[in-house]
Amino acid sequence: MSRILGTVPSHPDLRRAFGLRAAGVYYALALLLVVLAMVSTIMGRPNYLSVLNLTNIVYQSSSVAIMGVAMTVVLITGNFDLSVASVAALAAVTHISTIDALGFVPALGLALAVSAAVGLLNGVMVQLVGINAFIVTLGTLTAVRGLVLIASDGRSLMVHNPGSLSAMTAFESGRLGPIPYPVLYMAALTLIVWFVLNFTVPGRRIYAVGGNPEAARLSGINVRAYKLSAFVLSSVAAGFAGVLFGCRFGAINPTALQGEELTVIAAAILGGTSLFGGAGSVIKTLAGALLLFTLTNGFNILNLGANYQGLIEGTVLVVAAAIYTVGGKARIRRPPVATARAALTKEAT
Amino acid sequence: MDTSSSTAALLELAGLAKTFPNGTLALRGVDLTVEAGTVHGLLGANGAGKSTLIKILSGALEATSGEITWRGERVRWQRPSEPKAAGIATLYQHIPLVPTLSVLENVFLAETTGWRRTRQLEARLQRLLHSIGYDIEMHVPVGDLAIGQRQMVAILQALASQARLIIMDEPTASLATAERAIVYRTIKHLAHEEGAAVILVSHFLDEIVALTDEVTVLRDGAVVLHAATKDLDEGKIAAAIVGRAVEAVVREQRPSQQNTDVILEVNRLSSPGKLAPCSFALHAGEVLGIAGFLGSGRSELLHAIFGADAEAHGEVRVQGRKIARSPAAAVRSGIGLVPEDRMTQGLVPDFPLWLNATLPYLESIAWRRVLISHRREIELARQAINRLHIQAAGVDVPVRDLSGGNAQKVSIAKWLSETIKVLLLDEPTAGVDIGAKAEILRHIRHRAAAGGGVIMVSSEYEELLAVCDRILVLRAGAIVAEREIDETNEQELILLAGGTVASGPPCSDMADTIVTGPPEGLRATSAACERATRAPQA
Questions:
Q1: A225 interface with B at CB cutoff 8 Å
Q2: How many CB contacts within 8 angstroms connect chain A with chain B?
Q3: Which of A74, B116, B169, B282 is within CB 3.0–4.6 Å of B264 for a Cys-Cys bond?
Q4: What angle do CA B529, B530, B535 make, to 5 degrees?
Q5: Option in B24, B327, B369 nearest A201 (CB)
Q6: Is B471 exposed, middle or buried (0-12, 13-18, 19+ CB in 10 A)?
Q7: Of B163, B87, B170, B103, nearest in space to B135 by CA
Q8: Contact A201/B355, CB-based, under 8 Å?
Q9: What is the Cα–Cα distance from B240 to B223, expressed in whole angstroms?
Q10: CA–CA separation, A267 and A248 (whole Å)
C-alpha cells in the first residue's frame, strides 16, 4: 500500500516498502549528499554538510517544492499543469504592482485570487470543455506570460515604498531560529497536503479519481470537481511561490521563472509520481526537488562549471523514470495461474 | 440451397476439441461442414464455445485435437495470418478499423505493395460496391461514420481480401433496421452470387431463419443440433440453445409482493437514441431481472437509473423521494451500481482490495465525514472478504491480481453498506467461475431477503429465472414485456428478447412502454412466440 499512499504499511512487506521503486529517491538523495561531502573534503573545500549549506539547499528548493507539491496533486488526478511558472510570474507582478496601494496582505490576497482564476480557467477548459490538459496549460503558459509582459510593459517592476519593502523582506527573509520562512511555508504546505492525501476522505478520492475516473464516477464521486480543484490548488501554490520570488528581490522581471515549470514537473517525476494518475507522494516530490537543487548546489560548490549541469540533471531524470518503470513492470507481472485464468474467462465465452 | 450436389466442402471440422491449460473443456469434439455458396448459422448460449470455435478458425487459438480440412487439404493454423492468407476473413463484434484513415485506405489496409495506387484502388472499390449494391463515400475518415457504415467497411475489407469464407460474429447487434437490411443483402449476395460461404453468429433467431441455409447449435462445447434451416423454426432452435429443462433451483420463501412497499420508482426515464421512456417499480425484497441482448439498452437503463447518463431524463424515486440525476446523488439516496466491466468501470485495478471495497461510502467510516480510520477500513475489507467469500492473499492485494470471480465480488463488496437499499447489477456473473457465480447469486437473494431491492441484468436467462421474482424484457431500448417468474421460461425469454421481431425500430419513434408492478402489465407476446413456447423440446 505504501506505493500508493504514504501511510504506514499495514502489511509486513518491508522489501517492497524499502525497494528501489518505493524509496529510490531517498537513496539517491542520500547517496548524492555523501558523494558531494566526500568530494568536497578531498578537494579541500568547506564542509559540504554544514548546517549553513544544507539550509541553503532547502531554502533554494522551497519555491519549486511548493509548486511541486501542488503539481503532484494535479498529476495524481491524472492531469498535467504546464502553466505554473507563468502563473507565478503573474502573481508576483500583481503583488508588486498593487502592494503600495493596497498594503501587503490585501495585495497577496489579490495575487492569489488572480492565480486561482487562472487555475479555474485551466480546470474548466480541461474538465468541462474537454480539451487535453497538456494543450490547455501550454496555452495558458504562453498567454499568461503574455499577460505578464503587458502588465509590466516589458520592464522590471520595482517596489520603492520603504514600508512595502520591509513587509516583503519580513515575509521572505525572516527566520525562525535557523530556518528561513520560505522553508516553513514549504513544510506547512507539504504537511497539510500529505495529511489530506493520506488520512482524509477527499484524499482517498483524489487517488481514485486518477486511478480510474470511470470507476470513481460510478462510485458516486464528483470526478470533475476533484480534478478541477487540483488545478486551482496548483495555480494558487504557484502564485504563492511567485509572490515569495518577488519579495526576495523586491522586484520582478517579466521573464522571471521562465522554464521553471519543467523543474517542478521533474521534481514530481523524480519522486515517482505517475503521469497516468492514481499514484504519487508529496514527500517524495519534496525529496525530488531537494535532489535537483543538491545537484545544482554541488556543481556550484565544486566549481564543476554550469555547462555540465543540464546534461547531468537530464540523465538523472531519465534514469529515475527508467527505474520506476522497470520496477513497476516487475510488480505488475502476474502469477501464471491468474494470467491463464484471466485469459480463459475472456475466451471461454 | 442445394448443398447435396457439392463435391467437396469448403471447410470441414472433425472432432475439434479445445482444452484450456487449467482443464476447462471449451470444445468437446465439434464436427462442422461448411459448403461454398451457403450461409451457415452458428448459435449457442454464452459459454457454449462459439467464440472459441471462431478463434480457432481465425488462427487466434490452436485446437487441442481434431482436424481442420480447408478446400480438401488438412491444415494446422498457428497464427491469424495463416487462415487470412488461405481465404478466411473474420468480422468481430468490435470492428478493428483505423478511425483516422479513410474508407478506401481501411478497405485495402492489408494490401502490401509499397506504392499507393489510389486510382486503381478506387476503381476496385467501386467495382466491389457495385457488385453488392452499396454506396459509401470513399474518402471520409472511418471515425466519422455511423456504426452500421463501419460494419460495412469491415465487410468490404473482407471482400477485398477475396475471402472464400467470412465469419461474422453478431454483425447486426449494434445496427439500426436500415443498416441491418444492407448487411442481410450483402450476406445473401456473398453466398448466392459470389459463391463464398458465410458463418453467421447471431442471437436474433429471425435473422438466422431468414438468412441461413444450415444451422448448427452448440451447447457446452458440443454440437446439439445440426439441420437444414428449412426443417427448423425459431422455437426448435431456441429449445436446442436452452437444451435441458431449466434445472430446478431451490428457491427461498419469497415475501408476498402485494404487501411490501415500493422501494424504487422509475417514471418515464429515457435517453435519446438509447432508451425509450421506461416506467416501472421495484418493491422491497424483490429481485427484478432485465432480459435482453447486447445493444438492447439494458446497461443504458441501469446507467440512466443511477444518474450516470448525463443525457437521460425522467424521474427516479427512492422510497418516494425524487433523486437528482447524478451518481453522487444516487449513492447518497441508497442506490449502488455494479457495472458490466469490472476492471474499467467498477474497480481501480492498481489499488488494493481494501481501498476499492470502501470507495463509495468512505464518509460513513470517517470521523466527522473527513478523517478516515484506517483500522476501520481494513476491518470492513476483512468483513467483505468473509461475507462474500473472496479468495485473496490479504486485504492489500491489488484487485488487478485477483481472478475474475473474486474481482467481481470486490466490485459487489463496494455496496455492502447498509445505506445501500437498491443494488443495480449489470451482468454480475460474466466471466466468473461456477463457484463464485453461485455465491454471487446467493448474495443477491440475501439482499432481497433483508428487505433490499435488486435489479439485475443478465444474458444468461437460466440465471435470471433462478434468482429473480419478476423479469422485464428489453429490446431496442424499450421494455417489450413483463413476466412474473412463475409464468415464463427460458425459451420464451429468448423469443421475446430477440426472436420474433429482431429489428425493432429505434427508440425515437417508439410508443411509450409503461409497465407497472402488478402482473396485468403490458404483454407483447405474439402468437408466434406462444406457439414456440409450447413447441416440444429438441
A1: no
A2: 136
A3: B282
A4: 90
A5: B369
A6: buried
A7: B103
A8: no
A9: 10
A10: 22
Q: How far is CA A186 from CA A86, A180, A240, in A?
A: 20, 10, 10
Where b means 16+ CB within 10 Å and e means fewer, B114-126 reads eeeeeeebeebbe
* Burial environment of residue B74 by CB neighbours within 10 A (0 to 12, 13 to 18, 19 or more): exposed
Helices (H), ranges, B133-223: 147-160, 177-192, 205-211
Q: Which residues of A touch B362 (CB under 8 A)?
A: 201, 204-205
Rounded to 10°, the helix B434-449/B374-388 angle is: 110
Query: Furthest-apart CA pair in chain A: how many Å?
Result: 79
Return the SS3 of A32.
Answer: helix
Rounded to the nearest angstrom, the minimum Cα separation between A209 and chain B is: 9
Q: Is A4 on the interface with B (CB under 8 A)?
A: yes
All residues of chain B having their beta carbon less than 8 Å from the beta carbon of residue A278 are: 348, 350-351
Extended strands (E) in B52-134: 65-70, 73-75, 88-91
pTM of the model: 0.74
* CA–CA min distance A226, chain B (Å): 13
pLDDT tens digits for range B287-311: 999 998 777 888 899 999 999 998 8
Question: For residue B52, which residues of chain A lie inside 8 Å, CB to CB?
Answer: 347-348
Phi, psi of A46 (to 5 degrees): -60, 155
How many other C-beta atoms are found inside a 10 Å radius of the C-beta of residue A296? 17
Of A7, A220, A349, the CB nearest to B327: A220
- The alpha carbon of residue A60 is apart from the nearest alpha carbon of chain B, in Å, by 34
Kindly report, residue by residue over B59-117, the tens digit of the pLDDT: 888 888 888 999 888 888 888 888 888 889 888 766 678 888 888 888 888 776 667 67
**The length of chain B, given as a count of residues:** 538
Q: Shortest CB distance from B431 goes to which of A4, A337, A346? A: A346
Quote the ipTM score: 0.78
Residues of B in contact with A202 (CB under 8 A): 370
Distance CA B428, CA B239 (A): 25
* Mean pLDDT taken over chain B: 80
**What does the block give as the cell for A90?**
503573474
Among residues B310, B305, B341, B397, the alpha carbon closest in space to that of B94 is found at: B341
Say if A201 is an interface residue toward chain B (CB within 8 Å): yes
Answer whether B359 sits within 8 Å of A216, measured CB to CB: yes
Mean pLDDT of B17-34: 82
Q: In what order do the strands lie in the sheet with B335-338?
A: B335-338, B422-426, B453-457, B287-291, B470-475, B478-484
How far apart, in whole angstroms, are the C-alpha atoms of residue B104 and residue B156? 10
Grid coordinates belonging to B523:
404483454
